[in-house]
């Protein structure tokens, strides 16, 4: 009975937090839907222990969305916290390279989050497709994915948010294969400029050496995970291997990844391997990496956004020079 009462309290807390919904982007709750009856389920996209993700069509505006259902009545306390955190963080973010949040509601003892649908699937699907055809992802495409992922991280980090679970299946492809970073369930907000995280979360293949060694870590851990992802995108396999979690950890901390296929330029390989620098202090920041990105032939963002990005990078450089930071 006590557990049931606690769950009811948690559900009420969730409802209080997610209502009223964000209106700054014109995403008023009723325009998309506010209950299950407002959505038609088209296809199941994924299922886990505590929930299911469906592709749905809104009966309010006839558009396609993703509806993530989390069964709160079955969630242990830590997972309840993660579900609530995901809603809170999604509401704070608004960027073309981050999966968009539309609304959320509690119904039938479950939390439902309505998010942007990415029609291109995830990066793992892209790699699997190239494996089937015996081909490699073109270099221009790898550069573009890397740049857009860095832009997504720049947006998160500017709000003091670490993603902490960057991996192939959490990076989606929208219209024109635009990168869309998703799944913020285990993200962490750093409150102060010098704050460091200490809890070890994430997917083992993508854990930075400092996490393996149980040392405090910061935004550079996201850069490492992004490096593992971009390496995997290019090589079609991960940079580190192990028969178990311990041998994998040893590989991450002590071994150098195999060279990338010769089809890729020295410039691209250099950027990727810099992201996999073992020492966080020597690993480049997101801003430093963005300065190394070549200008693509086609853009997923308009010229004004690009000019804003360049101005922001110049401002960061000036602040870094003034404080002696890197």
TrEMBL record:
SUPFAM superfamilies: Protein kinase-like (PK-like). Residues 39-296 form the Protein kinase domain. One of its GO terms (molecular function) is protein serine/threonine kinase activity. Its EC number is 2.7.11.1. Signal peptide: none annotated. Keywords: ATP-binding, Kinase, Nucleotide-binding, Serine/threonine-protein kinase, Transferase. It holds the Pfam family Pkinase. Residues 311-320 have a biased composition (Basic and acidic residues). InterPro entries: Kinase-like_dom_sf, NEK_Ser/Thr_kinase_NIMA, Prot_kinase_dom, Protein_kinase_ATP_BS, Ser/Thr_kinase_AS. ATP binds at residue 68. The keyword ATP-binding applies. Residues 287-326 are annotated as: Disordered. It catalyses: L-threonyl-[protein] + ATP = O-phospho-L-threonyl-[protein] + ADP + H(+); L-seryl-[protein] + ATP = O-phospho-L-seryl-[protein] + ADP + H(+). Belongs to the protein kinase superfamily. NEK Ser/Thr protein kinase family. NIMA subfamily. This is non-specific serine/threonine protein kinase.
């Amino acid at each position: 009975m006590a557990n049931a009462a606690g769950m009811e309290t948690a559900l009420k807390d969730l409802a209080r937090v997610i209502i009223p919904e964000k209106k700054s982007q014109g995403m008023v709750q009723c325009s998309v839907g506010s209950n299950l009856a407002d959505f038609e389920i088209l296809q199941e996209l994924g299922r886990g222990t505590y929930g299911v993700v469906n592709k749905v069509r809104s009966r309010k505006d006839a558009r396609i969305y993703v509806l993530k259902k989390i069964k709160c009545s079955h969630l242990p306390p830590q997972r309840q916290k993660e579900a609530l955190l995901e809603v809170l963080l999604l509401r704070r973010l608004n960027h073309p390279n981050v999966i968009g949040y539309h609304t959320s509601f509690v119904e039938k003892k479950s939390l439902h989050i309505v998010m942007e649908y990415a029609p291109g699937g995830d990066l793992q699907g892209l790699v699997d497709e190239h494996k089937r055809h015996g081909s490699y992802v073109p270099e221009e495409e790898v550069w573009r994915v890397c740049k857009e992922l860095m832009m997504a991280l720049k947006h998160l980090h500017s709000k003091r948010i670490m993603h902490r679970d960057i991996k192939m299946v959490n990076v989606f492809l929208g219209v024109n294969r635009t990168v869309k970073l998703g799944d913020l369930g285990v993200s962490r907000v750093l409150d102060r400029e010098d704050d460091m995280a200490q809890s070890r979360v994430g997917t083992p293949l993508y854990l930075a050496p400092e996490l393996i060694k149980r040392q405090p870590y910061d935004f550079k851990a996201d850069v490492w995970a992004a490096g593992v992802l971009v390496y995997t995108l290019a090589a079609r396999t991960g940079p580190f291997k192990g028969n178990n979690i311990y041998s994998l950890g040893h590989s991450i901390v002590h071994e150098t990844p195999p060279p990338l296929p010769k089809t890729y330029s020295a410039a691209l390989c250099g950027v990727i391997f810099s992201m996999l620098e073992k020492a966080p202090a020597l690993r480049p920041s997101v801003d430093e990496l963005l300065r190394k990105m070549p200008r693509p032939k086609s853009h997923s963002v308009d010229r004004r956004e690009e000019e804003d990005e360049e101005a922001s990078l110049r401002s960061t450089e000036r602040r870094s020079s003034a404080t002696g930071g890197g």
